[in-house]
Design brief:
single chain; about 180 residues; alpha+beta; 2 domains; two-stranded antiparallel ribbon; about 15% strand
Length: about 180
Amino acid sequence: MKLTMRIEYTPRDLRQRLEAGQGVINEELVGSLTTMREKVTAVATKFAPVDRRGLRTSLQPGRTDTYTTTDVARKRALVGSKLPYAAVHEFGRDDGWWPPRQPIRDWVYRNRRKFGVGGGKAGQREVDRIAYLVRRKIARRGIKGKHYLQRALESIFPAFARRALQQAAEAILKRLGLK
C-alpha cells in the first residue's frame, strides 16, 4: 500500500503578486543585462587586437532593449564598435576578394619599421609594394577571426549569470513580498 500526502500553502493573493511581479522581473532582467553589457565591454577591450588602440577605444556598450519574436518578449544588450573593420577582427573574412587599399596601406605605413622600410620616395614605393602583398594574401587566404567579444562573454558569463540570477531572484521575491 502506498500513501502519498501533498500539502500546498499559497497566499491567497499569489496570483495578483505574480501578475504585478512581471514588471519587477523585467526591471531586474534589464538591470542585469545592463551590468553584464558593461562588464563584457570592459573585458573585450582587453582581448581586442591592438593597432593604435582604435578598436579598443571604440568598443561601447549599446542599448539594452526588448524585442518580440513570435509573441515572445526577449531582452538583449548590445556591445560593439562603429569601426568598419571591427566585424572583420571579430568574425574573420573569407578569401576571394580584395580588401580596400587605403586602410591596409595606412597600416603598413604606421608599422613600416617592422617591415624595415625607410623614408623618402623609395620608402613610399616600398610601403605600396608591401601593402599590395598584404592585400593579395588576405584576398587569397582570408583572415581568421579573433573573436574578442565572444571570448569576453565566455570569460565572464558563468559566474556573472549565476550571481545576477541570484540577485534578481532575491530582489523579485522581496519586492513581491514573498521573502
